[in-house]
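Escalation from tier 1.

The customer reports that the assembly of four entities below gives different C-alpha cells on two consecutive runs. Tier 1 could not reproduce it. I'm attaching the input and our single run for tier 2 to review.
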Amino acid sequence: MAEITIKDIAKQCGVGVSTVSRAINNHPDINPETKKMILEVIDQTGFIPNNSARNLKRTDAKCVAVLVKGITNPLFSSMIKIIEEETQRSRYALVLRHVEEQEDEIDVALELEKEKRLRGIVFLGGLFEHTEEKLEKLKVPFIFSTIGVNISDRVGKVDFSNIAVDDRLESEKMAEYLLGLGHRKIALITEEKGPIGNLRTQGYREAYAKRKLEVPEELICYVREDMDHYSMENGYLTAKKLLESGADFTAIYAVSDSLAIGVCRAVLETGKSIPADISVAGYDGIEMGEYYNPKLTTIKQPVEEIAKKTIRLLLDVIGGRKEHQQIVLAAELVMRDSTGPCADGEAESADGMRAGAAVARKTGSSGAAPVMYSG
Amino acid sequence: MAEITIKDIAKQCGVGVSTVSRAINNHPDINPETKKMILEVIDQTGFIPNNSARNLKRTDAKCVAVLVKGITNPLFSSMIKIIEEETQRSRYALVLRHVEEQEDEIDVALELEKEKRLRGIVFLGGLFEHTEEKLEKLKVPFIFSTIGVNISDRVGKVDFSNIAVDDRLESEKMAEYLLGLGHRKIALITEEKGPIGNLRTQGYREAYAKRKLEVPEELICYVREDMDHYSMENGYLTAKKLLESGADFTAIYAVSDSLAIGVCRAVLETGKSIPADISVAGYDGIEMGEYYNPKLTTIKQPVEEIAKKTIRLLLDVIGGRKEHQQIVLAAELVMRDSTGPCADGEAESADGMRAGAAVARKTGSSGAAPVMYSG
DNA sequence: CTGTTAGCGCGTTCAC
DNA sequence: GTGAACGCGCTAACAG
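Tier 1 run:
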C-alpha cells in the first residue's frame, strides 16, 4: 500500500491540491465549507503531510531550534520546559535536538538550519571552541545559553548573544564563604581540562589570593577523565582517593552538585560526619541538593531566568526588535546544612558567624548538627 | 546569499549533479579521483546537503526512531545511550525525539515515519491507551520498551513487541520484603490514576493478601495530581501530609525512588530516623539511591538489559530475522540501608532476618544504624 | 474562492 | 564512469 499523499486527498475530494494545501495550512482564502469537507476526509483517511516535502518548499517556517549537549544535565530539563512555553506562546515551532558528546553542535546546527529552515538557534551546554569562521556560517541568529561559561570575551566579528553566569566570580563566592567559616584547608574537586572546571578553579584560587592566603595546591583534586566528569560516581571516586591519601583538610568544595553528592557518600562512608568533621559544598543548585541528607550548600544557578531571557532575546533578535547582547546573570549562594564553621580554626564574626547564623536560621536548629553515616 | 546546493557544487566541479550525489553517498560507480576532487570542493564550500530533500527521495534510509515521553526520567538516559550504541553498530541512523506530555506519541510516530522514512520505532515511556485502530496505521515495526507497564494482555491483532518488567509482581516483592521484616503498617505512596501506580499498588495489596493480612487502606496515600506525579517534591508533600495526619505506621513504600527521596526528607525533618523509626523503600533503582543517605532500598529495573533487548529485537524484526515478541524481564530487590526490621513487631527468621542479615552484610555494619536528621 | 503549474534540493533511473 | 532528465510531496504564485 503506497503512502497516501496530498494528491490522493485532492482527488477524493474532487478539488485541486492547492485547495487541500490551503485547508491544511489554515490559509484565509478558502471556503469554510470546502475546508471542512477536506479536513473531514483527511481525518478519515489518516493522511499526514510529509514534513520533508513541506520544509523543502516553505520559506516562512516560524521555527527555532534548541541544541542540547549533555541531556543528562538535570538543569537543562527545566530550562527546556521554559523555552518550550515561551516559543509556543509566540507561535513558533520548536525543534529540540540532542547533540551527542562527540558531535559538533555547529555542524548539527548547520544541517538543521537547512533541513528545517530555522529562524533561530539556542545552544545549551557544550564547549566554546568554535572558530569564528565556523560560527560565521550560521546565517540565523543564535544564542549560547550556557549555564557555565561566560564567553563575552570571545565575541569578535561574529555577532551572537550569550547569556551566562560568571562562573569564576560565583565560584569565588563559595570559596570565600568557606574561608569565612574559618576553613583554610579546603579541598577542591574539579575538572583538569574543560572551561567550566577551569573557571570555577580560578574562582577558588582567587578567593585565597584576595585574602593573601596560599592556595593549598596539594588539595586540588582532578576528577577522572575516563568517565563523565560531573557524575556522582566520579565525585565519589575522587573524594575516596583524597580521603585515603591522608591529606589534611576541613572542607571539600566540589565544582558541581552531582560531584558533591558523590563526595558526601565517600565522606560518610569513612565514618566522618558532615559538616561537624568535614564541610561539603557544591555548585549548580540542582533540586536534589534540597533533598539530600544533609541538605547541600551550593551556588544556585538562575536557570529559569537564564532560560526565559535566552528565548525572549532570541525571538526579539529574530523579530528585529533587539540587537545581540552579552548578558551576565548573578547566581545565589545558598547556605544549607552540609557546611559549617571550621572546628580547628575559628569563624570570623564578619563573615563566618553571619553565615553560620544564616544556616541556623534556615534549618531551625541551633547549628549544623552532624549527619552520621548509617552503613 | 542564496543557499548553496548540489547544483552549485556540480557547476564548480564541472561535473553533473548525479556525480556529486554519488560522491556524497559513497556510491561505488565513481572514479576515485573525481570523487576526491568533489569532496574537496564540498569541504571548502561548506556545502551541506539538505536533509529534507534527501528524505523525500530516499527509499532505503536505514533509520530508526526512539520516541521518549518524559525526558526527565533518569532511567531513560542510560537506556538511550545503549540504544544509540547498538544502532550505530548496526549502521543505522537514529532519530531521538522528545514527546511532550500532551502530545500523542503515535501521532508523532506517524509523522516521523513519513518524514524520515523510518524502518522501526521504539517507544520509551508514555501510556498505553492507544486503540488498535491507531496502532494499525504504523507501518514499520515498533516496540514499547516501557519500564513500567506490561501490556502483553493488550496485544490483539496489531503486531508489535513489548519488553517490560512485571510491575505488579515486582512491587509485591517489595511489600513482601517489608512484611517479612515484621512491618504490618506499611504506608504506600502511589499514584491514584495511571497504569504504573496502579500496578504497583496492586502488588502491594497482593502481598498483604497472600499473607491473609488486611490491607491498611488508611495508609494508602495518593500523590498530588497537580504536579509531576513522580517528583521528589510530590513525595515530600505527600509524606508530610501523612506524617501530620498522626497515622500509625512503621514503614513507607513509595512507588518510585524520586518519591522515596522526598519521603525521606519529610521523615527526617520530623526528627525521626531511618530506618530505626521508620523504614523507607522506593522503586526503580536510580543511581541516586546508592548515593542518598541512607542508601535507598529499592526494586532495581534492569534498564541496560531492557534497552539492549529492545533495540536488538527491533533490528532483528526489521531484518526479518525474528517475529515480534512479548518479553517480561525480572527486576531485582536491592536491600540497602533505608529499611530495617520493624521495632514494634518482630522479623521472621525465614524472611526478615535473612533480609536483615543481607543488609548488614552489604553495608559492613552490624545492622541498619539510624540516620539522624541534621537540620 | 479555486485549479494549474512551477519549482524546492536531491536521488535515481536511464542512456551515453 | 558519467550526465540529463524526471519526480519525490508539497507550497506558492499565478491565472481564472
